[in-house]
Amino acid sequence: MSTQTGPALDTPPRGHALVPGPKGLPLLGNLPQFGKNPLAFFELLRGHGDMVRWRFGRNRCVFISDPECIGELLTETESTFDQPSLGVAFRAVMGNGLIVARGRDWRRKRSLVQPSVRPKQVKSYAATMASSAVDLADTWSDGQRVDIKREMAALTQKIAVRTIFGVDTPADSEAMGRAMDVAQLEIGKEFAGIGALLPDWVPTPGRARIRKAAAVIDSEVGRVAARHRDGETERPDLLSRLLTAVDESGERLSDEEIRDETVTLYIGGHETTSSTLVWAWYLLSRNPRVREALTEELDRVLGDREPGFEDYAQLTYTQAVVKETLRLYPTIWLITGVAKEGARLGGLPIDEGTRVWSSQWSTHRDARWFPEPEEFRPERWDAERGDEIAEYAWFPFGGGPRVCLGTRFAMVESVLILAVLARRFELDVEPGVIEPVPSLTLQPDRDVLATVRAR
Predict the structure, then answer these.
(1) 370 neighbors 387 (Cβ within 8 angstroms)
(2) What are the beta bridge partners of residue 338?
(3) Of the ranges 168-172, 276-280, 373-377, 450-454, which one carries the lowest mean pLDDT score?
(4) Residue 181 Cα to chain centre, angstroms
(5) What are the distances in angstroms from CA 236 to CA 109, 163, 220, 265?
(6) Whole-angstrom Cα distance, residue 129 to residue 136?
(7) C-alpha span between 88 and 357 (Å, rounded)
(8) Contacts of 148 (CB under 8 A, 6+ apart)
(9) H/E element holding 16?
(10) Count of C-beta atoms within a 10 Å radius of residue 131
(11) Which pLDDT belongs to residue 323?
(12) What are the backbone angles phi and psi of residue 383, rounded to the nearest 5°?
């Protein structure tokens, strides 16, 4: 992917000026518009300008769409922007893991977690990714109808528990899966509804459900972690690496910290990749030309064998399919930060306490950065003949110091799974538009049913 500092089109950016957004309601501000359809609301804000004022309840907010400002927000987090509070439901599931932690606590945890997902470690997990996909492929047959959402969720969960826990399943993988489904739903409901404005101490049915789900997650992670501690043999899985990691003062992660980072890695390796693959199959089914180009590369690079880590670099079109899927349907669809004293964006001062928002969904679909933004066109990622793409116009994994540590893991996993399955099969998704639902990740609004066609 090539980058430049300006937009891809001749149309110049609208410039850095804080402009008013749509008028809100007393006390609630723009929350009703946001809650009804966050993705459409962000596109509405983008239509007002690149730096737009709005209100989330009584909270002052600025929505940014220009990649230059997005880059400033991402790269200056921890210096002039802080992590916001993300609600009771989010904290109940994620705890105080890397996504939530701040300052010195964040730096310490990052130094302990990062070695577990370095390229060398990801390479060691690639065989598990590919073999798990092969196991699934062996169960499919020509003409079979499958629920892609369910199939991809089961596959990525299997890979997650094998690479994170070092076993085929945690103590009760079905309970863990059900708890994560509840978590996804309740986080989305709270974030886009009136619950986002309620004090933490206010009880609601949704908060009761999320605490019950979090208790299941705590129990399962704790049970597997205890089994690891009692074992005498060294394990290569992510959890074992977390259990033995020590910081510069010789301290290890506490039981609570182990739980939080394990859940963070589980969501990154399971929920986000599963969603990406579902959207990829949906897009491939709707675009036969792209599907044909993908299978041509798989036949040329792999022939009759299954892919391994060494093939990843050669599967450039497969990588482009994943990147283009993440452009159109970014699993992480929102980033936020809270301005500290002296914060600036685009050369303009931002009042302390202002919450700054940006959305991958909105920016990825901006015609200034991506010509024909609604088109599924993996060729735009060709290093030599593709589009010139502005830096931070594409940021599905965030960026700056808090960029997702699992980026490499997620890309390798998505590419290898797609390569294994698409080499053998085509999936014809049933007709009808599938809408994205923004929750913890960007999920399809219904089951994604398809017919398996053997190649």
Answers:
(1) yes
(2) 82, 355
(3) 168-172
(4) 15
(5) 20, 8, 20, 15
(6) 11
(7) 19
(8) 277, 278, 281, 282, 427, 429, 448, 449, 450
(9) none
(10) 15
(11) 98
(12) -60, -30
What is the H or E stretch that residue 332 is in? none
Q: What is d(CA 326, CA 330) in angstroms, rounded to the nearest whole number?
A: 4
Q: Which residues contact 73 (CB under 8 A, 6 or more apart)?
A: 64, 81, 335, 337, 345, 356, 358
pLDDT digits (tens, 9 = 90+) for 250-260: 788 888 888 88
Q: For residue 302, what pLDDT is reported?
A: 96
Torsion of CA 191, 194, 197, 203, to 10 degrees: -100
**Higher pLDDT, residue 13 or 339:** 339
Cα distance between residue 422 and residue 414, in whole Å: 12
Read off the pLDDT band of 23 (50, 70, 90).
very high
86: exposed, middle or buried (Cβ count in 10 Å: 0-12, 13-18, 19+)? middle
Structure confidence by residue, pLDDT tens digits, 106-165? 888 888 888 777 888 888 899 999 999 999 999 999 999 999 999 999 899 888 888 887
Listed residue (319, 448, 326, 340) closest to 398, CA to CA: 326
pTM beyond 0.90: the answer is no
Q: Which residue has the higher pLDDT, 237 or 230?
A: 237
Residues 6+ apart with CB under 8 A from 47: none
| Euclidean distance between CA atoms 121 and 128, whole angstroms | 12
Which range is least confidently modeled, 27-31, 135-139, 230-234, 429-433?
A: 230-234
8 A C-beta contact, residue 225 and residue 256: no
**What is the number of other CB atoms lying within 10 angstroms of the CB of residue 358?**
25
d(Cα 362, Cα 64) in Å, to the nearest integer?
10
- Contact criterion met (CB below 8 Å) for 86 and 104: no
Distance of CA 362 to the CA centre of its chain: 15
pLDDT at 171: 52
DSSP string over 208-220: HHHHHHHHHHHHH
Q: Residue 112: CB partners within 8 Å, gap ≥ 6?
A: 242, 245, 246, 247, 253, 261
